[in-house]
Design a protein that fits this description.
three-stranded antiparallel β-sheet; four-stranded antiparallel β-sheet; 196 residues; alpha+beta; 4 helices; elongated; single chain
Length: 196
């Protein structure tokens, strides 16, 4: 990397792994250790269950630690638990913040940063969520600036990417309309008892 302030690395810190992931797995392991020996099962089953839980905790910690989004001069690197992808800046079609696919679940970030490539494929950018950075909009500005400065003079959107982006935007607008309608209905239902 260079001293360019727009080239950044987004990954987990060792402090987070030691201070959060490992302690978070301790109660789960403790619960398994408390329950499994009480079950009337052979010793090998108990040892197997404890081993699987332990290996799962180690794997989750390792996978989270491996994930990263790294900006280079020629590409953006997206590293997950299983794959590493390099997307050249000229192949990036869009970078934006979107609602998380799992936003309806508890204990997950509601907004995430995504990248669309030349084929219209979407990639979640590891460690670029509303929980992982102070301001997702600020970091979006940094990534978009790096992309715009490095994508080349003759860059243009591909038809596949345009179709995908339009479909995602339409789906988001429809979901927002439905959510607004439900909010109005819920508000109306709440008013009737007061009026009555």
């Amino acid at each position: 990397m260079t001293d360019d302030p727009h080239l950044r690395r987004y990954d987990s810190t060792k402090d987070f792994v030691v201070g959060f992931l490992i302690p978070a797995s301790a109660p789960l392991s403790g619960a398994v250790l408390a329950i499994v020996p009480d079950v009337d099962s052979p010793l090998w089953v108990t040892i197997s269950v404890i081993t699987v839980v332990f290996l799962l905790a180690v794997w989750v910690t390792a996978a989270y630690s491996r994930a990263a989004t790294i900006l280079y001069e020629d590409c953006i690197l997206i590293r997950t638990a299983f794959r590493t992808r390099r997307v050249a800046w000229e192949d990036v079609q869009e970078i934006r913040n979107e609602r998380s696919p799992a936003a309806h679940q508890h204990n997950v970030p509601k907004r995430v940063m995504v990248l669309y490539d030349r084929g219209g494929r979407m990639f979640l950018l590891p460690h670029l969520t509303e929980w992982a950075v102070d301001s997702l909009d600020t970091e979006l500005g940094v990534l978009r600036d790096s992309w715009i400065r490095r994508r080349g003079e003759d860059w243009e959107r591909t038809p596949q990417a345009i179709a995908k982006l339009n479909a995602v935007t339409t789906k988001s607008e429809r979901a927002a309309e439905q959510l607004g309608f439900l909010a109005v209905c819920a508000g109306g239902c709440a008013v009737w008892p007061v009026l009555a």
